[in-house]
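Troubleshooting entry. The earlier prediction with dinuclear copper ion gave an output that would not parse, so I re-checked the input for stray whitespace and re-submitted. Clean input:
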Amino acid sequence: MMEMLGLVAASSYAQHIDFVFNMIFWITAFWLLLAEFVFFYLILRFRKKAGVKGQYITGELASEKRWITIPHFAVLLFDVVILFFAVKVWYEVKQNLPQAADQQLVRVIGQQWAWTFVHAGPDGKLDTPDDIIKVNELHVQVDKLHIFQLESKDVLHDFSVPVFRLKQDVIPGRVITGWFTPTKTGEYDIQCAEICGIGHALMPARIVIESSDQHAAWMAENSTVAVASATAR
Ligand code: CUA
């Protein structure tokens, strides 16, 4: 449904998150429509009629209690289904940290009110001279596993990339590790999603998802020691 509303799905797990959202929406819609249908049916069926006296029903008979117990267990059953898929997707996105030989590393630093992105550069390691540091501009390569390390310099922030369906709190004093694999090239929004002071709304950034050629060209252009470290390897 998110796709229908026009928000691109650009990570390997975006569709899985959308699936859980859509499932919850349709289950809720099903119960709402069913409950309203029964409700209006009963109102019309048992409305006031001339010569018919109203009944006082206590709901103590087994045949009456079934109106409560059967929907109750049906709702619980649907809850178990939601829980199963929610935990499955949560595990995939948040608990699990995939590994790949050619994974990219990036440090994401939140502060009042900007994002700093430390790209590992051609050597694939952070805190080396070829790191590429950008403010409010994250460059990644399509179809490549990225491991990010989230840090905050001051208060709580939240690293949100809507096209990835990724949202993760940034907590001062902690390094939070996570991952994503972009699946579509293009330029999209990053937004701080945690109230972090007066400038919170002014804390957007951009993510640029590039093809491997574009990304290599961007790295060569921006890393001052790109050529030296590439030959040293
Ligand atoms: Cu940073 Cu809101």
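This one parsed fine. The longest strand covers residues 104-111.
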